[in-house]
Amino acid sequence: PNLISTSHHFPVQSKLSVFFTMIILFTYLFYCLNGFCDSLPRPVFDQRSLLHGGIILTDGRDAENLGGALNASPASVVRQHLPDLPTGDAPFNISVANTFGSKKFPQAIIIGVKKGGTRALLEFLRIHPDVRAVGAEPHFFDRFYEKGLEWYRNLMPRTLEGQITMEKTPSYFITKEAPRRVFSMSRHTKLIVVVRDPVTRAVSDYTQTLSKSPGLPSFRSLAFRNATTGLIDTSWSAVRIGIYAKHLENWLRFFPPSRFLFVSGERLVSDPAGEMGRVQDFLGLKRVVTDKHFYFNQTKGFPCLKKPEGSSRPRCLGKSKGRPHPQIPAEVLLRLRDFYRPFNLKFYQMTGHNFGWD
């Protein structure tokens, strides 16, 4: 009888074991699906092992075949060898985004100028694995300063050690209060200004406004305060922005020239890799973004990014970039060029660079 009783209990114990195992398994899966497992260690993200060990990566490559990766930051190595990570606002589109890195104030800001090529520069920079940037323009130092620095910092993407946090808002350059406010955040902030021939920039600015307001007066009527005397209306923002020397004086009251990099909007089109080399050097980054990343789009008239690995198509800027400009009378452009000439010369002296606009 004892033998029969004992053999009867074995199936019951087995069923109970299976039952409790299933409960534990489902509980674990439930917690993981709700994000409670993010803090568990993940060996594939052990940066020291990835950099210094001969481990096998998820795609079967070993650390000895990473080429120049050993000279890059841990963040860049992780980004380069995870499958198809986007370079937008949320590059780590996986659960570790919430537990890796921290939000910091930007170490570098693209402060201007509107219609100079700031969007192109930001998109080109985002190719670099050690650059993390806000996609939209925060406008903190000109529109939302009253919200406070903590609000601003929370807008920033998470960064790992060795990565740079960036943002771009072109209107900062012409905002009187912006230099003091940026300086109050950090006197060590690196400032990038993308400049372009002020006459071409003004026409581009007008073209953008015209696309949104088709009933806009002509360029001539807006540019001249008095058409008879040819007096330029400097109160019109499209004209005022191009007086670069005046705006730079305001910034130089707070930051030394060494804190600035002036990027040529024209060279960003004609030689994007060369200009990007200067930008990467200024930011203290390894030159990762090179000519292999670009091709010239004949239709748009400016460079586009070649198809990234794992992507279905090349990446160009939006439809608003490269739109045709309206015909402006030659005498209007000539008068505007005469107006800007002395300001351009002063700007060349202040920056130590002749941009060749005259």
UniProtKB/TrEMBL annotation:
GO terms for cellular component: Golgi membrane. Disulfide bonds join C304-C316. Residues 106-341 form the Sulfotransferase domain. It is found in: Endomembrane system; Golgi apparatus membrane. Its EC number is 2.8.2.-. It comes from the Eukaryota. Belongs to the sulfotransferase 1 family. The chain crosses the membrane at residues 12-31. It is a single-pass type II membrane protein. This is Sulfotransferase. Keywords: Disulfide bond, Glycoprotein, Golgi apparatus, Membrane, Signal-anchor, Transferase, Transmembrane, Transmembrane helix. The active site is at K115. InterPro entries: NST/OST, P-loop_NTPase, Sulfotransferase_dom. The keyword Phosphoprotein does not apply. GO terms for molecular function: [heparan sulfate]-glucosamine 3-sulfotransferase activity. 3'-phosphoadenylyl sulfate binds at K115, G116, G117, T118, R119, R196, S204, K321, G322, R323, P324, H325.
